[in-house]
Amino acid sequence: MTADEKAGFQLFNGKGNCNSCHVDGRGTALTPGQTDNTNTGSARPTFTCFGSANEGLPLNPRDAFYYQTTPDFFGFTGNPFGFGYRDLGMGTFLRSGFGAAPNPNDTWTPLAPMVDGQFQVSSARNVAMAPLVCPTTEAPGPFFQKEFFHNGYIKSLKQLVHFYNTRDTSFAQPVTSGHCAAGTIERVTCWPMPEVRNNLDTTTGMLGLTDTEENQIVAFLMTLTDGFTRPYPDINTFTGVCMTCNPATDPNCSPSRQGNGSLIPTPPLPPCASAICGVAPVPNPPIP
Ligand code: HEC
Questions:
Q1: What's the pLDDT tens digit per position in 247-285?
Q2: pLDDT value for 93
Q3: Residue 102 to residue 179: CA distance in whole angstroms
Q4: Which of 134, 213, 221, 268 has the most Cβ atoms closer than 10 angstroms to its Cβ?
């Protein structure tokens, strides 16, 4: 590990508090400056606790699902609610609600309001994996454009860590994506409001990491790429096109701003459809 990767590892288990959900089998040293001296524990380094949390992602109007409001060739309408759709995650699953597989255990149903907005903690393993020809996820590249978190709102690992670090600071704005105030930059100095505010995780959001510390966590995340490549046995066979940009001419050509050139304004949101937010036991507080 390089010095920055090592520092990122300490931050992942310490000031960043990432290890409390993305468990790596070691201790969590929460005091700033404290070094993690714990031995590797019994937990396997899966980099997920297999739990769930609501990280407060803004609604992503670039998600094709919002536009699937008319029947397709087979007569199937993916999302009759359009922008009245809200992704309640685990809550919809426990209600056996719209789009969810049936909840296998009725006794869990009353717990739905406690998990609205929560999604399973993804493993951080292989999060930076990319084809060898465009080996990074970060601009200027040549990079491989990934979509992070459940709705793809976050476009780079730098943005991912910056989001955890600053979501609940003065960058939090009561706007939807595409409507950040003039003078602010979406995903850099403006975070649109969460799609679902219920059960928002507050162990993240205001971590006090410096810009350098954010970059060190990114460097650490990039070390979590292993050699295991199924179902793509040979990553050398990637035939797609790598992304590139020119920082001299494109203001969005940086890990912090990549993807900002293709933001679209979220339309005025209709209230959450009753087939989603009106299913008992209803979300508490109600979802707008
Ligand atoms: C309270 C639990 C929690 C904490 C603390 C936490 N995460 Fe996460 N993490 C999640 C959840 C939940 C998801 C999936 C969220 C989603 O898709 O909406 C996730 C997803 C991720 C992903 C995968 C994204 C993808 O699309 O593959 C990475 C990488 C990640 N987190 C890194 C971090 C880092 C770095 C930190 C510390 C700065 C951190 N997490 C702190 C719960 C947590």
A1: 999 999 999 999 999 999 999 999 999 999 999 999 999
A2: 96
A3: 37
A4: 221
* Ligand 1 centroid to residue 224 C-alpha, Å: 14
Structure-token pair, residue 255: 């890990």
Q: Which residues have CB under 6 Å of ligand 1?
A: 16-18, 20-22, 52-53, 55, 57, 119, 121-122, 124, 127, 148-150, 160-161, 164, 201, 203-204, 217, 221
Rounded to 5 degrees, what angle do the CA atoms 183, 189, 193 make? 105
**b/e burial code for range 168-188 (CB count within 10 A of at least 16 → b):** beebbbebbbeebeeeeebbb
Give residue 112's pLDDT: 98
pLDDT of residue 45: 84
Distance from C-alpha of 58 to C-alpha of 55, rounded to nearest angstrom: 9
Query: Per mean pLDDT, which range of 103-112, 147-156, 220-229 is the poorest?
Result: 220-229
Task: Tell me which DSSP letter residue 39 carries.
Answer: P
What's the pLDDT band for 94 if we cut at 50, 70, 90?
very high
Look up residue 81 and give its two tokens.
């609610």
Integer Cα distance of 140 and 242 in angstroms: 11
Give, in order, the Cα–Cα distances in Å from 201 to each of 14, 102, 187, 198.
17, 26, 19, 9
The residue count of the chain comes to 288
Predicted pLDDT of residue 25:
82
Report the alpha-carbon distance of residue 230 to residue 250 in Å, rounded.
Answer: 36
Q: CB burial class (10 A; 0-12, 13-18, 19+) of residue 114? A: middle
What is the distance between the alpha carbons of residues 17 and 25, in angstroms, rounded to a whole number? 14
Contact 152, 62 (CB under 8 A): yes
Atom 43 in ligand 1: residue holding the nearest Cα = 21
Q: What is the pLDDT of residues 56-66, one digit of tens each?
A: 999 999 999 99
